[in-house]
Amino acid sequence: MKNKTAAPITVYEGNYLRMVERGTWEYSERTHAGGLAAIIIAVTPQDTVLFVEQFRVPLQANTIEMPAGLVGDIHAGESIEISAIRELEEETGWTAERAEVLMIGPTSSGSSSEKIAFVRATGLTKVGEGGGDGDEDITVHEIPRTQAAAWLVQKMAEGYELDAKLWAGLWMIEHELDGSPRG
């Protein structure tokens, strides 16, 4: 009970994260953007899945991820859908006519209060090169949907770190949340 009712104590606060103690628990919180990120599930008209590759300092390794970003980090009050479309374009050079929030849940419930929204982007159009903003060095990969899982396994064997949410995203390409086939 003590952990649930203890007042939170900030033990460190930086530009983007704070460390909090609550009873015997230690965890991180985002200092801005409401603690919500969006992962964008995007399949092009050519039936390729969009993945991004970038070096992640905490892992000291290149990672393969689906495009993602903080909700409302640029424009306060921005909707999840608008943030997702903006991040998709910034990271991949593709924009979307529509974005649909599929589900929202914790990213790592034992160590962070951050939540992530899985967003399906549809009606994609290529509008630029992507690659991220000035602080990012993102490589865009367009992988045929039918080969995406095998490509991810190959990248893992090559030593890339893979965001585990990739597998949920691939499942959501093919299925509705109730498990029925999509389409």
TrEMBL record:
Entry annotated with the keyword Hydrolase: yes
Keyword Iron tagged: no
Molecular function terms, GO-annotated: hydrolase activity
A Pfam family per the record: NUDIX
SUPFAM superfamilies per record: Nudix
InterPro entries for this protein: NUDIX_hydrolase-like_dom_sf (IPR015797), NUDIX_hydrolase_dom (IPR000086)
Domain Nudix hydrolase: start-end pairs: 33-174
Keywords tagged on the record: Hydrolase
GO biological process, one term: ribose phosphate metabolic process
Protein name as it appears in the record: ADP-ribose pyrophosphatase
